[in-house]
Amino acid sequence: MMNLTEADNFPFEIISSGADETLAAGKKIGEKLQRGSVVALEGGLGAGKTQLAKGIALALGIHEEITSPTYTIISEYEGNLPLYHIDAYRLKGSDDFINIGAEELLYGNGICVIEWSNVVDDVLPRDKRVSISIKILEDGKRLISVKGLKCELS
Known about the structure:
The chain is an alpha/beta fold. About 25% of the residues lie in helices and about 30% in strands. It has one domain: Rossmann fold (3-Layer(aba) Sandwich), CATH 3.40.50.300. Strands 1-2-8-7-3-6-5-4 form an 8-stranded mixed β-sheet, with helices on one face. The longest helix has 14 residues, at about 20-30.
């Protein structure tokens, strides 16, 4: 069961017991995102960043397979809003990000989900940013911490 705790409504945390709950958390978050939102994802390998991105995609009406764009760096999907799924893991910093044209997507008409966002943190807009960190707990559950979502999850 997904547990939600709120402190002054935002930021908030979700405890996920497995992949299905992480997917459901992503879907709930995705339902609250607005055109132009930039989701900055942080978490170690296998933490569930791509699973959360899959849930966001479902909320946007995207039903094609969402995979980690580690080697392609940017994957684009069409739904109710476009989804730009970016993996900054292999980038050497913000200059690489800008040189591949990814910065343009930050100011587009869709939703940007950026895995390993710490690599390009200095070029991410602060006003449209939703920061999400996923930490693997000792019992294998995930602690999903969300900052910057401008509305409550219901």
